[in-house]
Amino acid sequence: EPEVTQTPSHQVTQMGQEVILRCVPISNHLYFYWYRQILGQKVEFLVSFYNNEISEKSEIFDDQFSVERPDGSNFTLKIRSTKLEDSAMYFCASTTFSGGARETQYFGPGTRLLVL
Amino acid sequence: GQQLNQSPQSMFIQEGEDVSMNCTSSSIFNTWLWYKQDPGEGPVLLIALYKAGELTSNGRLTAQFGITRKDSFLNISASIPSDVGIYFCAGQLRGNTGKLIFGQGTTLQVKP
């Protein structure tokens, strides 16, 4: 069964450093998402991406965050200057989503980011 | 912003017991999803609901999409130790970009 993959599984970085989290969505999917989950809390939406542009972003997704689909398979989340409060599990998700049909959002295993 | 209120926050039950959890919102959702998350892993989809009133089963799991489109419940029958984990409801609003809004989660512990 196809699945969303993410790398790295864990990343430790110093405050102020840039990090890039990588995702490979399911191959025929068209919509891509990043979510984050601070330890012990609920999963929160960060950004959705379709047709090579951001379609929606949350208040969390400020100027320090960016997303990119550099080629036909990868989908990346970049944090330019990490803060302590960016420490969280980051999940990538993808779906075929056409606004009404029966699509399902599939999640990757996550990248645990720790900012020191 | 939209919020989902999920309850209970945690449950500690005996193996073999049935479990029920629910989510409510003041917003109308187009889709309700139930996910399970094991420690250190991503959410895994259990059941997806797309129509008001829909009742769907997946093995020992049953979920329903509320008639008002503002709530959903998940039942687990005859719980087993591997049911342990955190269960999240997630809703998808009509006409948006497909983003999911998650509940706070229900932590389930099963005593053998």
Strand portion of chain B: over 45%
Q: Got a strand count of chain B?
A: 11
Oligomer: heterodimer
Number of strands of chain A: 11
Shape field of chain A: globular
Structural class call of chain A reads mainly beta
Taken from the alpha-carbon principal axes, the silhouette of chain B is: globular
Main sheet record of chain B:
6 strands, mixed
Biggest chain contact:
A-B, 30 and 24 residues
Overall pLDDT confidence of chain B: 92
What is the CA–CA distance across the termini of chain B? 40 Å
Radius of gyration over C-alpha positions of chain B, nearest whole angstrom: 13 Å
Order of helices and strands of chain A: EEEEEEEEEEE
Low-pLDDT parts of chain B are none
Intertermini distance of chain A = 37 Å
Largest sheet of chain A: 7 strands, mixed
Unreliable stretches of chain A (pLDDT < 50, length at least 5) are none
> How much beta of chain A, percentage-wise?
over 45%
The helicity of chain A comes to under 10%
Reading the helices and strands of chain B in chain order gives EEEEEEEEEEE
